[in-house]
Amino acid sequence: MDDRITPEARHFIEIISRFVQDECMPVEDAIEDTGRLPDPLVRTMKHLGLFGLRIPVVYGGSGMNLLDYCFALKELSKSHDAIRAIMSVNNGIGSMAIVNDGTEDQKAHYLPLLASGEYISAFALTEPGAGSDASAIATTAAKSPGGWVLNGMKHFITNAPIADIFTVIAVTDKEKRAKGGITAFIVEKGSKGLTIGNIHNTMGGKGWLQAEVIFDDCFVPDKNLVGSIGSGFKIAMKTLNEGRLSAAASAIGIGERLLSMGVEYAKLRKQFGKAIGEFEAIQWMLADSAMELYAADRMLADTAYRFDHGEDIRTQSSMTKLFATESAFKVADRMLQLHGGMGFMKETKVERMFRDIRAYRIFEGTSEIQRFMIARELLKN
Amino acid sequence: MKILVTVKRVSDPEAKLKIKPDGSWIQTEGVKFVVNPFDEIAVEEALRIKEKQTGEVVVVSIGEKVVTEQMRAALAMGADRGIFVNYTGSYDSYDVANILQKVVEQEKPDIIILGKQAVDDDMGAAGFMLAELLGYPQAAFASKVEISDDKKKAKVTREIDGGLEVKEVELPCVITADLRLNTPRYASLPNIMKAKQKPVKEVTVDALGAAVKPRVTVKKLTEPPKRKGGVKVESVQDLVTKLKNEAKVI
Ligand SMILES: Cc1cc2nc3c(=O)[nH]c(=O)nc-3n(C[C@H](O)[C@H](O)[C@H](O)COP(=O)(O)OP(=O)(O)OC[C@H]3O[C@@H](n4cnc5c(N)ncnc54)[C@H](O)[C@@H]3O)c2cc1C
Q1: Do A168 and A199 meet the contact criterion of CB atoms below 8 Å apart?
Q2: Which of A15, A16, A69 to mutate to test the interface with B (most CBs of B within 10 A)?
Q3: Contact indicator for A289, A331 with CB cutoff of 8 Å
Q4: In the prediction, which pLDDT does B2 show?
Q5: Which architecture, in CATH terms, is B2-224?
Q6: Which pLDDT band, with edges at 50, 70 and 90, does B234 fall under?
Q7: A223 CA: distance to closest CA in chain B (Å)
Q8: CB of residue A324 inside a 6 A radius of ligand 1
Q9: Cα A103 to ligand 1 centroid, rounded to whole Å
Q10: Do A47 and B190 touch (CB under 8 A)?
Q11: How far is the alpha carbon of B190 from chain A, nearest alpha carbon, in Å?
């Protein structure tokens, strides 16, 4: 384990590792079949403090730094992706705006509920007409006495059907848009004019849901405005900046699990009278996978460490997210191939992880957008 | 109610161990160390008793400074404070019992819970010896512990060959924890952080006034003999011939 990870985090990561082995892996198939996380599992997750790892200690969380958090998350991601998904939103995109820019009242009210897992959160930025180009959002917030009235529609919003609060990014000034015309709001479940639309049917990601979120004259009181009027685009970008590293961490965790399954199978499976691991073609699959995961792991540690020390890591976090998720997908493909027909069968779980890892190249900024941002920085002057 | 629990640092039962070339002990480099699993069960039981009765759980570890890592793990589970007996020499079960006796005399706990054995040397003797030295009643291999309402007695269920035995012992007493007593809780991250601040008192064997003079010494460790690889036989006839002529069992 990386030397820079604190002793407390190491201890915790060992506990997560046990939790994953003893409690998560045995229920993976049930999660996939039912699309639900078992209640006892969620209870243990709450007990472990998993929902509040990144939330400051004064608000009931554990205040982990990003490096420690990423490596805890990496370990937790080795089981079913829905386990990672439910806790990572509360630690990331679902709470980050409040942690970074919320008022004292917002922090004191919402953060303890998010840290304990009593509240589930969602982050609503993407719209049918605005994906990679987030500045093109059309959801509006118009000033009215005592608050704001929201109109518009979001889609692909993780946790929407179960979320207690949403961080919503909306346009408050159509002229300025991303340059001071976009604002962040906290919208509570059950607010008048807020409805959850269709739940999307997806390729993978069983057990965690995306849905449409519709605002129809939805009133949000002034006290639920996050940061200042017009600071919403910055808030969203800051949130995603950090989110990229957690996406990388989970992808590496999934990749490592797949690699270890591949190694086991290569030793076990015999064809032409020998273990398939004795064939060079299989060895190369394993060697390339190990190499890429190692490189991604080091990029993650380095970038998270720099973030914790106040460095601007925008470019590095794009590179880390890009490399880690693309590598993990390649690992998944190779390990599926290595398993032959068994890899295609549900019982080996490889096909599940193959489907789950696919989304990582899309959310928190597609691979193309990461490349675009890296290149933009290179060509700036 | 004050409960004293022992916590021993042992090599991970899952780890593949290698013996040092001179046979004096196992190679410790690169080996993961954990809380002895039976001690973890003992800590859990102490915490459950405390949660029902209120009181204090004190953990005690003996050895070099590194053993405090495992003590912190017990504190992170919820124990209140630690006593670290700093001792770097070799010792046997009777020495452990002697040291613990002195700790008990100072702390005067109502209950002492130990793991039924440590999974490294599997001696399983310290608990019995401690009870004997203290002159306390003991209930070993507990699979269930109930404290009476007046907090004067413990009803302890033990798994014995062919059934269950229920013992009632008066407090203070010594209990050793068996595998099925409970499932230890996970330490949460907030509790891991809090454990850093919990008091750990460091004492020496001399200061405790305990005599350590091992009666048992480890002469040499050797690996079990390597098993010879088997052979595949082609036919039943082959098998019978081999069983007759080579194995000489029929
Ligand atoms: C499982 C999942 C969970 C999600 N959860 C959330 C959530 O909780 N909250 C939320 O707000 N959003 C969420 N999203 C949405 C996600 O962030 C978007 O899907 C993503 O940003 C891409 O936007 P898009 O789908 O509109 O694709 P588009 O932007 O339409 O992209 C289509 C293709 O064009 C490419 N492209 C676009 N622009 C460029 C360019 N400039 N240069 C090169 N190529 C380009 C893209 O890379 C892509 O290949 C989630 C998505 C998924 C799949």
Answers
A1: no
A2: A15
A3: yes
A4: 97
A5: 3-Layer(aba) Sandwich (3.40)
A6: confident
A7: 30
A8: no
A9: 30
A10: no
A11: 6
B190 contacts A49? CB cut-off 8 A: yes
Domains (ranges, CATH) in chain A? Answer: 7-116 (1.10.540.10), 121-230 (2.40.110.10), 240-380 (1.20.140.10)
Q: pLDDT tens across A105-137, in order?
A: 999 999 999 999 999 999 999 999 999 999 999
pLDDT reported for residue B83: 98
ipTM: 0.84
Q: Is the dihedral of CA A63, B78, A13, A367 positive or negative?
A: negative
- Both tokens of B99, joined, read 């040291």
Q: Is B2 helix (H, G, I), strand (E, B) or coil?
A: strand
Q: What is the pTM of this model?
A: 0.90
Q: Are the beta carbons of A351 and A261 closer than 8 angstroms?
A: no
Angle at which helices A66-76 and A81-91 cross, to 10°: 160
User: Does the beta-carbon distance from B196 to A8 stay under 8 Å?
Assistant: yes
Residue with tokens 């270890």: A260
A364 is catalytic: yes
Q: How far, in whole angstroms, is CA A83 from its chain's centroid?
A: 11
Per-domain residue ranges for chain B? Answer: 2-224
| DSSP conformation letters of A319-368 | HHHHHHHHHHHHHHHHHHHHTTHHHHSGGGSHHHHHHHHHGGGTTTS-HH
Question: φ and ψ at A6, to 5 degrees?
Answer: -65, 155
- pLDDT tens string B47-69: 999 999 889 999 999 999 999 99
Residue A12 at interface with chain B, using a CB cutoff of 8 Å: yes
Residues B92-119, mean pLDDT to the nearest whole number = 97
Q: Is A372 in the pocket of ligand 1 (CB under 6 A)?
A: yes
Atom of ligand 1 nearest to the CA of A130: 26
- Which position among A118, A292, A364, A377 bears the catalytic label? A364
- The 10s digit of each residue's pLDDT in A150-190 is 999 999 999 999 999 999 999 999 999 999 999 999 999 99
How much is the pLDDT for B247? 85
| Ligand 1 within 6 A of CB of A362 | yes
Strands across the sheet containing B163-170: B163-170, B153-160, B138-147, B173-177, B111-115, B2-6, B56-63, B81-86, B200-204
Best of B192, B197, B198, B232 to disrupt the A interface (most A CBs within 10 Å) is B192
Looking at the partner chain, which of B185, B193, B196 has a beta carbon nearest the beta carbon of A62?
Answer: B193
Q: Which residues of chain A have pLDDT under 50?
A: none
Neighbours of B171 (CB within 10 A): 17
